[in-house]
Amino acid sequence: LFDMLNMGYTSVGATLQCRIALGDADMTAPVHENFRCIVLQSASGLSQVDAAFLNRFEKHCVDISDLVQTQVLRDASNMLGARVQAAASLPPSQAANGSSEGQMIPGGVPGLFLAWGPEAAPSLVLHLHQSSTAMNSAAAASSGQSYAKAAALKP
């Protein structure tokens, strides 16, 4: 793959060719003139990736909050995160444990929501926004079709 990463292409007629070797298999493959290679790597596994491999790429750090583009969605994400933090620090109900002494949720936020992490609130807000947008688009299309059918039926 290093020939591909180093852009070591060979021109054969009007096409670009690249040698690809995986294990003991070796072949040439055509390469589109607009080919781009994007590698996604989690930050936690970055220390295990070969430096020579990484040096062949531009590096950008992107997380889910970068995809939340409008101020309203950012505010909703921040508000949700703050509410979850507040919920994790509330004392349990006196009825639940029978005592009057309040204790915090064991384990904080992860004890309250199992898979909660720094990207959970932005991811949830973005998912709900996209779902809502898709449902609104489908409803508008359906409404338009109903209106068109009703207009066609009028004499």
Please tell me about this protein's structure.
The chain has 155 residues and is an alpha+beta fold. Helices cover 45% and strands 12% of the residues. A three-stranded antiparallel beta sheet has the order 1-2-3. A hairpin with a 2-residue loop joins strand 1 and strand 2. Helix 3 packs across helix 6.
Question: Which tags fit this structure?
Answer:
45% helix; 6 helices; alpha+beta; three-stranded antiparallel beta sheet; elongated
What does the overall shape look like?
elongated
Please give the count of helices.
Answer: 6
Based on secondary structure, the structural category is: alpha+beta
Q: For the report, how would you describe the main beta sheet?
A: 3 strands, antiparallel
- Kindly report the average pLDDT value: 75
Write the layout of secondary structure elements.
Elements: H1 2-5, E1 10-12, E2 15-22, E3 25-31, H2 51-54, H3 71-88, H4 94-97, H5 108-112, H6 120-153
Antiparallel strand pairs: 1-2, 2-3
Helix pairs in contact: 3-6
